[in-house]
Amino acid sequence: MPSPTPSTDAVIEISKLSTSFGDHVVHSGIDLEVRRGEIFAVIGGSGSGKSTLLREMILLHRPDTGSIRVLGVDLQALDGGDANGETLALRRRWGVMFQHGGLFGSLTVQENVGLPLREHTGLDDALIDEIAAAKLAMTGLEPQVGAQYPAELSGGMRKRASLARALALDPELLFLDEPTAGLDPESAGEVDQLVHKLRELFGLTIVMITHDLDLLWQLADRVAVLAEGKVQGVGSMSELAQMDNPAIRKFFDGPRGRAAHEQDKQQADVHTSGQTG
Ligand SMILES: Nc1ncnc2c1ncn2[C@@H]1O[C@H](COP(=O)(O)OP(=O)(O)OP(=O)(O)O)[C@@H](O)[C@H]1O
């Protein structure tokens, strides 16, 4: 269930952001704000620049113009690449779950989860293993999974392991790139519940890119719609569903959009009748 009272304290502030690849303009003056404690989703058609925006927020790509502040730090002002102390300090305050997991095939699951701790802390191996095991448990994986290799896991387990790694350094901010893509509905539902639990337990701010309408209706506090290089609208799914903007309407009026909306309404009805009955 989306949180009804997210804080207004901004964790990410994006202003007048523009990005091009050659003469292909991907972002043309994007303004966005992500507030502390909210689950914020970015949606848009294929090629609308969602992944590029995510990459810009985590210092993997530099926009042409505009500014991005993450956790109070102006990313454009950071200098010196990854070796820079301020960059490292910032990187360890966020966790990223990449679309395809991004796990190293030659390392066990536990070694993968412990990797950020090895890179960013001076902790000894025994303690790193202990923390990695705790993170795996947090994401609902059995202890023996730690000794397995990514190729031995199901898609849902790989997502969980990737999430465990993203949580290794107890981040304040979590980026999820298509967290349920490629999963069967049951596994997708489990990831959905897990993300919800993480936010409830740790007050994480979560930014996700997703095409998953169930996830959007169930989880997102606010959603930004990208199209034609611009943010076409920002709001809760219910608010967006009311907006009279062709790019947003296209999203909601498609068959999948209508089906998901119907499902959400049914759930709301069940919830309401449960409360009053
Ligand atoms: N490194 C790059 N070099 C050249 N063009 C790129 C590069 N990265 C992205 N693009 C282009 O920028 C546009 C936006 O890509 P991006 O991956 O951000 O879109 P997206 O909204 O995430 O799409 P999808 O939903 O299909 O993943 C696309 O046209 C893509 O081809």
TrEMBL record:
SUPFAM superfamilies: P-loop containing nucleoside triphosphate hydrolases (SSF52540). Residues 253-268 have a biased composition (Basic and acidic residues). One of its GO terms (molecular function) is ATP binding. Keywords: ATP-binding, Cell membrane, Membrane, Nucleotide-binding, Transport. Residues 12-253 form the ABC transporter domain. Residues 253-277 are annotated as: Disordered. InterPro entries: AAA+_ATPase, ABC_transporter-like_ATP-bd, ABC_transporter-like_CS, P-loop_NTPase. The keyword ATP-binding applies. This is ATP-binding cassette domain-containing protein.
